[in-house]
Amino acid sequence: MINFQEAINLIKENINRITPEETVPLALCSNRVLSQDIVSNEDLPLFDNSSMDGFAIRAEDVTEASVEWPKELQVIGESSAGKNFEGLVNINQSVRIMTGAKIPEGSNAVVEVESTSESDGIVSIRRSVQYGEMIRKKGENIHSGDISIPKGKLITSSDVGVLASLGINNVPVRTKPIIGILSSGNELIEPYKIPLENQIRNSSASAIYTAINESGGEPIDIGIAKDNKIDLLDKFEIGLRYDILITTGGVSMGKYDLLPEVLKEMGVEVLFYKVNIKPGKPIMFGTYKEPNAETCYVFSLPGNPVSSLVTYKLFVLPAIKLLLGDNSNQIKIKAILLHDINKNDNKKYFIRGIICNNEDGELTVRSTGTQSSGALISMSLANCLIVFDEESTGGKIGEKVNVIML
To answer: Which of the four, 3, 293, 320, 327, has the lowest number of CB atoms within 10 Å?
Structure first.
């Protein structure tokens, strides 16, 4: 049995390829990983524009303006979004301007409409303004030639907005790794079926299927294998063709836990089996390589739904990121523990937790309650994992503890 960091290192050392590149339409690129730096070929904004509705003026004309002694300026026109004012603003002149409209030539500041009053072509300015005030400068967000979004980034809705503003309609991304999900167990049935007394619905596969979609992968449900070698071997023939094969159940030491034997028979090189963590100790990672084919990375996760999801987050997700060239890091922070958590063994613990802000704006965290590996609701409630290292004896109320965000 190895420790957590040793397991992570073995995964990193053995995933030595990145999926190929493809181009997808802008509308379909969200939650994909960029395969190239996005370099801007223009400035954003394209021109100096107003950040407020108001009046474009020369700051030097209103240096002494106040509520008691407003400064009157002539209004010579209007600049609105999509319709620029084409003239020149001279001394003691102004132009009515809308948010996003181009700053007229000659003006160098904007005063918001709330600090003005207009009548008969004259606007009264009731405060002084600074040079450049309320002006969004050309290239303020992005300069031509800048890397606006780096390769290896998982594309968010905000990134899609940037791409659209740059006129990029076809986006270079990594192809989604194909990830097979194979469940095993005589007791498992599909979620839509009514279970008998000796059956349970296969919740792990459904949860992992969704998690793969969220991670940028392409999930394929291979189905449920019965606890016999023939069925397992048949389904492994399918699953080992994919980039990653995830199995759930059958990896412990029971009479019907046949996966270790089947993996060996299929030619999978097992790189580790069992990691000193809780939950999820009976996890296996290995590789399978056929001539002239890419390596398939095999993760055998525990059957308990919580253990399978936690080990997916801890081990499979980093593997998917490596295949995609995803450069994002796991979010790790510290938070104040709201109650005691005791630990009485030398495993590394990952406690399902809920993190939030207290009245003072400090991050606090508490467990979701029972930490049973079968209590899937505890994972549904969680937005983080509270981490206690092997040598730790737990945490006391008020202590700062390590937290991994989910």
So the answer is: 293
